[in-house]
Write a structure and sequence with these properties.
Blueprint (H helix, E strand, L loop, with lengths): L10 E4 L2 E4 L4 H23 L3 H5 L2 E8 L5 E3 L1 H11 L8 E13 L2 E11 L12 E12 L2 E11 L15
Parallel strand pairs: 3-8
Antiparallel strand pairs: 1-2, 3-4, 5-6, 6-7, 7-8
């Protein structure tokens, strides 16, 4: 008899069948630590302005959408573009992972959200940039025992405010 997904730890229903997606608590702790090491390594590579080290945390065929929406495809292009950006704009920047949230989709795939902050960068016109904050979304895959970023998306963030109600104000 097929068990219901709720009867299996971490189980999900797929095409009418139960699929087990859980893995041992120890493996989960080990994998979480490994992913946190990727995120720390990415931060350290950025702060050392080492584009080769930065790109080494990505899969060969990774997709990277930077904070202004430029789409870089593959580790070589990611390395090249990060190197170019550190010649001037980010040469003196410091990037910090303020929060890292990890969610496993499978035993070999995880989504990571990183709240970050940055200071010390320059605007394109050369003026000092204002400190900034943002959120990155990474999809990591375990490949041959190593966690790598397959998809990277970055966005600036601003404090959340209430949505307008559409009510007209009378003067």
């Amino acid at each position: 008899m097929l068990k219901r997904p709720q009867d299996i730890a971490g189980g999900r229903k797929h095409k009418g069948r139960s699929v087990v997606t859980a893995f041992s608590a120890q493996k989960s702790q080990d994998e979480t630590a490994a992913i946190r090491n990727v995120e720390t390594g990415l931060q350290e590579a950025w702060n050392h302005h080492d584009a080769k080290a930065f790109a080494s945390f990505f899969t060969e065929d990774a997709d990277c959408v930077n904070v202004v929406g430029w789409w870089w495809k593959g580790r070589p292009q990611i390395e090249s573009k990060v190197a170019d950006s550190h010649v001037f704009m980010f040469r003196d920047s410091t990037y910090s992972n303020d929060e890292v949230h990890i969610r496993f989709l499978t035993a070999q795939t995880a989504v990571v959200h990183v709240r970050w902050s940055m200071a010390g960068h320059r605007n394109p016109d050369g003026s000092p940039g204002q400190p900034r904050k943002g959120i990155q979304t990474h999809i990591l895959q375990e490949q041959e025992g190593k966690w790598l970023i397959a998809v990277f998306n970055n966005t600036d963030s601003v404090p959340e405010v209430s949505f307008p109600t559409g009510a007209l104000q009378n003067d």
